[in-house]
Amino acid sequence: MKLRGKFITFEGGEGVGKTTNLTFLRDYLIQHHIPVVVSREPGGTQLAEKIRSLLLTKHKESITEQAELLLMFAARSQHIRHVIEPALAEGSWVLCDRFTDATYAYQGAGRNLGASTIQWLEHFVQQGLTPDLTILLDAPAETGLKRAKQRGELDRIEDETLSFFGRVRRGYLLQAELEPARIKIIKADQPLVDVQNDIIGLIKHFFVNEH
Ligand code: Z5A
What we know:
The structure is a single chain. The protein has helices at residues 18-31, 46-56, 65-89, 100-110, 116-126, 141-150, 162-178, 192-206; strands at residues 7-11, 36-40, 93-97, 133-138, 183-187. By secondary structure, the protein is an alpha/beta fold. The chain has a single domain (7-206), classed as P-loop containing nucleotide triphosphate hydrolases (Rossmann fold). The model has no long low-confidence stretch (mean pLDDT 94). Bound molecules: ligand Z5A. The site of ligand Z5A has 24 residues, from α1, α4, α6 and α8.
């Protein structure tokens, strides 16, 4: 299938501003008459949202690391087939709150599952689909966790230790080092207006001229 829209993902640890900035970019694109679809992972379809709630709720029975990884990709498969690919095929830009870089960071680095199984699953599930641009909002784990805590009760993954989130952050930075052309780091601990200027700069540089 020839995909015509652009696929942009937002990544980063807890509370770094992914949702806030994704909404900002959506509004900017709409103002520029670009059709846009907003989604998130895990989630984005009815079934994938059910998997999300399984993943984020605290259960009596612990979820194994392997089950967590497989559930992430099960949700992703539904999301790609039913939302992302159709939207890109009709020319919409897809803005997604997290995607596979989160799996490398949380399950690969955070849970210490390593990269090779994830690479295999990525190939199996995505069949070559990767984001055109990934905006990695980077801040010390403490900064984002503080913002997330202000929001209320923490979910199953948010309840992890600070050292877990330190590994997640390093996992993301390693991904960016491995794929510098796709993954662009923006400092998330600067004032929001500066974060958003950086995002618009990136978008102009990447796409607007060619659109
Ligand atoms: N997960 C995984 O393990 N593996 C995977 O493959 C995938 C996901 C895809 C999904 O949660 C969970 O799933 C996540 C990873 C895991 N686990 N955890 N924990 P999510 O993505 O839905 O939720 P989240 O990461 O916890 O996101 P969040 O807490 O909603 O944060 P956010 O979207 O990055 O931040 P925000 O809501 O836009 O902003 C937080 C607050 O900070 C808000 O009050 C803002 O107004 C404020 N803010 C934002 N930017 C600024 C600046 N620059 N200055 C000051 N204040 C700011």
